[in-house]
Design brief:
The chain contains 1 helix and 20 strands. By secondary structure, it is mainly beta. The protein has 2 domains: 133 residues, no CATH class; 130 residues, Sandwich (Jelly Rolls). The strands form 4 sheets. Strands 10, 12, 15, 16, 17, 19 and 20 form a 7-stranded mixed sheet that branches. Strands 1, 3, 4, 6 and 9 form a 5-stranded antiparallel sheet that branches.
């Protein structure tokens, strides 16, 4: 959990010379977010990058009629898994709340949800979700006037990722990270063949970790003692070259869930052949 500051109950220090009086015994509260003595304000944050600093700013209506502003910060690590941060507050009404981040780029890299819960939200009772959405430096999320967005209900983050170089004679195998969903836009790789064996045929396969649900085989035979570059992209009209660099088509609009795999399945791959680390372009969403 990141650092946080304590709220103040000194109304005179917050709003000296206050002119508006509130009848706290009979007046209806101007908000629908009541925080009881057994309730906790929780922040859930999931980030695909490290060291995201979230700033939570809120204003509280206290039982004595005073209005207390406050601001707290948390440091969110990467990894995409949900992180939970409790804000223990006194009995009050929340008049407004906003969450912004230190990420200057307007990419959907950090998803947040603010909620009121009795007990830990994972096992307790969530009484109210205040706001949720991808959080940026300027365009944060807010309550009560913000627009709530689900993690999959916004355009994804376009990411260029360098995969892992397989051992000689091994196929490429890349997995979608936990708490993520991908749409593969393009992938580029190189196959270097040795001077033995029959010609090789490049193929890509897509599976759910066990079962192959799609495969794409090029109609070209790569000779021995060559290094061919293969470019796959969403929108290519089949194979358009008869030699390196090869342009080949990817299945369009195919979402890939966490742990699903993108693999090569090269026919006649020699134990001494070498595939490069793939470079691929994906659209990524957080699944929280």
């Amino acid at each position: 959990m990141g650092s946080s500051s304590n709220y103040s109950t000194d109304a005179s220090a917050v709003s000296p010379g206050r002119q508006i009086g509130l009848d706290v015994q009979n007046a209806s509260p101007p908000t629908g977010a009541y925080l009881g003595v057994d309730d906790t304000l929780w922040l859930m944050a999931s980030s695909s990058v490290n060291n995201v600093i979230l700033t939570v700013t809120y204003r509280l209506l206290m039982p004595d009629g005073s209005i207390v502003p406050n601001q707290q910060q948390v440091n969110v690590g990467g990894g995409r898994s949900p992180n939970w941060y409790p804000f223990t507050l006194p009995e009050c009404f929340i008049l407004g709340l906003s969450i912004t981040s230190n990420q200057s780029a307007s990419f959907p890299q950090c998803y947040v949800t603010a909620m009121i819960s009795r007990g830990n939200p994972v096992v307790g009772v969530i009484s109210q979700v205040l706001c949720q959405g991808y959080c940026y430096q300027i365009a944060g999320v807010s309550w009560p006037n913000g627009v709530n967005t689900t993690a999959l209900g916004a355009p994804g983050n376009i990411r260029s990722i360098t995969g892992t170089t397989p051992a000689a004679g091994a196929q490429i195998s890349e997995s979608v990270p936990s708490s993520a969903r991908w749409r593969l836009i393009a992938i580029r790789l190189t196959l270097t063949t040795v001077a033995t064996g029959p010609g090789r045929v490049m193929a890509l396969t897509f599976d759910d970790g066990v079962n192959i649900f799609c495969s794409d085989t090029t109609p070209l035979i790569q000779p021995v003692s060559t290094a061919w570059i293969y470019n796959y992209a969403d929108g290519f009209a089949g194979v358009v070259n008869t030699g390196s660099p090869i342009m080949a088509q990817l299945p369009q609009h195919m979402p890939l869930n966490q742990t699903w795999r993108i693999r090569t399945s090269v026919v006649n791959l020699d134990p001494a052949d070498q595939l490069s680390a793939p470079q691929y372009l994906v659209e990524e969403w957080l699944t929280v």
